[in-house]
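Recap quiz, item 2
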Amino acid sequence: MDTGTDRVVALVDMDCFYVQVEQRINPELKAKPCVVAQYKTWKGGGIIAVSYEARAFGVTKNMWADDAKKLCPDLQVARVRESHGKADLTCYREASSEVLEVMSRFAVIERASIDEAYMDLTASVKQRLDILVDKPIAIEGLMSTFVEGYPQASEEEEEEEEEEKVEDATAPKDALRIQGLSQWMDSLPPTSQRTNADLQLAVGAVIIEEMRAAVEKDTGFRCSAGISHNKVLAKLACGLNKPNRQTILPLSSVPQLFNGLPISKIRHLGGKLGISISETLNVDNIGELSKFPLEHLVEKFGMKTGPWLYNLCRGIEFEPVKPRQLPKSIGCSKNFPGKTSLDTKEKVQYWLQQLSLELEERLTKDRDENGRIAKLLTVAVKQAGETKTGGFSRCCTLARYDAERISTDSLALIKSLNCAGNHQQAWSPPFTLLHLSASKFMDAATSLSGGITGFLKSDIAPTQQKPFLSSQVPNGSTTQQPGKRPGEIMSFFQNASKRTRQCHAEPPEGAASTELNNQHEKGEDKKPGEIMSFFQSASKRIRQGHAEPPEDTATELNDQHEKGEDKKTGEIMSFFQNASKRIRQGHAERPEDTATELNDQHEKGEDKSEDGEDDRIDSHSTIAEQVVQTVLPLKTQDCSPTTIQTDGSTHTIIPDDPCSSATSQADATIHTITHGGPCASSERSPAFTFAPEDYIRCDSCGQEVLAWEMPEHTDYHFAQDLQTSWSSSLPSSSQVPANISKANTSDGNSQCKTVQASRRKSATSRTPAKMKKPAGKGVSIDHFFKKS
DNA sequence: ACGGTTATAACT
DNA sequence: TAGTTATAA
């Protein structure tokens, strides 16, 4: 029978992690009763971590700091930092990364939470046994290790165990530890018996001792650990001797331990399932579960849980340690309890903006550090009076890392929840929770090459393009994906360049004539080399390990552009090769072509949801966007909104929004020349008319664009997106956004337009947040393309 | 008014 | 399938 003892699995848990982080920042707090609390106004703030000294006073997590002070008057209270008006856990996440980094030197790890990680030590143990040859395992290598179930009480001692134990405190505890450890080690076979389960646990424990020592040395943080054959046992073991200790749990000690261990102590059984088990089977501890036949458990708890329980109560479990150091989603949320609930649209918008700002910051950092891009945005809310778990959530494609965009998309996703109606200032029922999160990460390089493939495709068959639907989220595997072969990337550039050249070669007569076109023509012909220079500067930054650029990114780019007139593509290639290498290493997975898949989906046709309302938003994700987001973690000056005239109505234009009906100069160009075209408003009188077959729908913004203008149009998306990636938008100062979307309507298919409209408006109040811009004339992307 | 997050199984 | 909800930590 498979008892799953072939693996060595450890769970490492940082001791009161947040407290340790605060103590490292402020050493005054060390060795004192100390808690970390967030917020202050309500009862002194809620406690989220408690030092062991404070626990001795009965202070616990989820207690109000004011109440804790009553139990422990000398309690030190560290506060969670706040930014964007909410608790900000950044420093704990960073500390967590430090720790995981160290742990990864010893084995593959699975990040279980901010302060916990599982490790599969099986391979490391085998390796160590090779080194160990025939030498015995030294007890000195296990100085903080307990062995659960040891020392084993002898027959005679069993009666008196009560009296003996209660006597002293700490000193004898270690004596007992050593006694148990020695006893167990004496029973181990020689290290030549490499496959012995307990021997492997012992070696695993030695490795974990070393690992924990390294963590403390390199980060200053202490932790506890459990070492056993599976995740459940490791987790259980970890909790047996905290803090700053580790515990081996041999399978042979499981029956004793489980006999009398409440079901709720087992991972996954701490909640309703655990209760339902004890009620259904009328049992109290896990050990008792072993009395039930498999069939019975399956009947009661299903095909998945039944067998799991059957094995589990025998100490057997097979859940693998998933190799994953990074979180699979990045999110932020804030509660608005009781009277603080959000009861006006302005409050909702304001807080969505705050959350969006944090999300953008974190996503951008994540992209820079981890080379991946989230593709799905989820917004969740809870309304006053709702049950604990009850909530509402909707999602859409996360097209760009842009706080403003995230914010407006989020609002669009939830605005149907406002019973007061969209035009009212009131919001009811009020929200008691807002949550934003980004997930479905795609590897940056894959995203890039996938986009390129799509780009190529559109190169060949530019018609037939349908707007990118929000529901069509790229289906990346949950982890990273391998990069494309450089050859493909190369061919992309060759094709793209060729096409760019061609298009600029002969624009049809009379097709372009506006101010915007003029302006465009003023600039030199865009050569592929110029686009390349963007990639070069970007790739350089990436190779350098870039953070934020100092500031004068624009200048830098210009310089580079000017002198790098004709750089070879070789350098660009090396960037992409680098990128794909980074991807490939460490992550093996999935071979299929995302772009193809996406295109297939396109062709499959429209939104499949047809019933009633659909809050989803068109994404308009472009290849260029993906490229930009992948390669350019840069920020630069923002652009001033521009204003153009379109048949009498004045539009304020957000320069970085290719979705707006009138956006950049490029878009404006299109706007003008497509007067009377398929996508022009019916009330406008055509200035030029072209046959319907002259138009292609822009995959990015959905507009019908004249075929020969498409390359330019695409380039402009690209350019705008570059800018978007540099400027990071949103006023952090503006208390209440002036950008209330009044444009809205209930007409079903104008969801995207509504969003656009509100975004357009909001640009008016847009102020430079992270990057100041010179007052007056904005620096448009053209700036980079032109020699001034 | 038990916060802010993250993960995963179940459900639809 | 993909998206939403429930549950757990």
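The longest strand of chain A covers residues 426-443.
The two ends of chain A are 78 Å apart (CA to CA).
End of item.
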